[in-house]
Design a protein that fits this description.
By secondary structure, the chain is of the alpha+beta class. The strands form two sheets. It has a seven-stranded mixed sheet. The relative contact order is 0.11.
Length: 299
């Protein structure tokens, strides 16, 4: 993202995942521009309206219905996504909407949410896999803590549509929702960045490192499809946050069997990085608990 802000030397333009001045290039980090890009490319998304004021929000919610989601244009990890159950409940956001910033009002889809990750060469998918979110932080809005692998022709077709429309070269992905009609809709983009979950693919037969090696060596035509897998993946270090937030029984109703459950610790070469991340997460949660007790003692 810093390269876009400073201006990219022409000599490096060839290495961008998509043209800098393309609609997708301009949409990096902007949910509103990504939504406009999806609309222009006929990529299915939940009914979404861009709003800039309280009056526009109430009109948009009449189209999407209550409950709906309110999303700030910038932000990730579910930290700027809010579920609105009614107009009365939405009143808390009226002061923020007065700033004139762009927000998205999006129809609430009640099906399963998940993520697709893929490696593409100029819009052609070479390797991909997907998983459904079973447990997420931030009241289920993300990031993921526990997920199940999913693979079917419908999801594969959506993956290829997104890749072809973007013309992208690189390793990236997007979040999706499944509708009651068993159709998939795109709800968020990773198309300006890679994703921390790409190493999960090894449990469903997808090795992105191997796919990228084959591509770099000039192999012209290959495709790596995920194999059906009953495996569940627990993401580290997000699991530490979950245990602090929901306690030791957070997984009680979600795990299948220990045999089918894996913990994604990260690559062996990153063990010290993982340890540092775990330590920071642990200390952060302990400070939150300490702050709560401090407020109770002085109140």
């Amino acid at each position: 993202m810093a390269l876009y802000k400073r201006g990219l030397p022409p000599s490096l333009s060839h290495y961008l995942p998509y043209p800098k001045e393309s609609g997708l290039g301009k949409a990096v980090g902007r949910k509103d521009l990504f939504q406009s890009w999806c609309d222009a490319e006929n990529i299915p998304t939940p009914l979404t309206r861009l709003v800039h004021s309280w009056e526009e929000l109430t009109l948009a919610a009449q189209e999407t219905g209550w409950p709906c989601f309110l999303k700030r244009s910038a932000g990730s990890g579910g930290t700027t996504v809010f579920k609105l159950d009614s107009e009365e409940g939405a009143l808390a956001f009226r002061p923020q909407l007065a700033s004139g910033d762009t927000w998205l009002v999006q129809k609430m889809v009640s099906g399963k949410a998940g993520c697709v990750l893929f490696f593409a060469d100029r819009g052609e998918v070479r390797a991909w896999f997907g998983f459904e979110f079973r447990i997420c932080l931030n009241q289920g809005k993300g990031p993921m803590v526990l997920g199940d692998f999913v693979s079917n022709a419908t999801l594969a077709a959506l993956c290829r549509q997104v890749a072809k429309s973007s013309g992208i070269t690189g390793l990236t992905g997007f979040d999706f929702m499944e509708t009651e009609a068993r159709e998939y809709q795109v709800i968020d983009s990773h198309l300006g960045r890679t994703t921390a979950a790409n190493h999960f693919g090894k449990w469903c037969g997808v090795n992105f490192g191997e796919a990228i090696r084959r591509w770099l060596e000039g192999e012209a035509d290959f495709s790596v499809e995920p194999t059906p897998s009953p495996t569940q993946v627990i993401k580290f270090p997000e699991v530490i946050d979950l245990l602090f937030q929901q306690g030791p029984f957070a997984f009680r109703d979600h795990l299948t069997t220990a045999k089918n459950t894996r913990v994604a610790w990260g690559a062996a070469s990153d063990k010290w990085l993982m340890a540092e991340m775990a330590w920071s997460t642990l200390i952060g949660n302990l400070r939150v608990i300490g702050g709560r007790w401090h407020r109770r003692l002085i109140s």
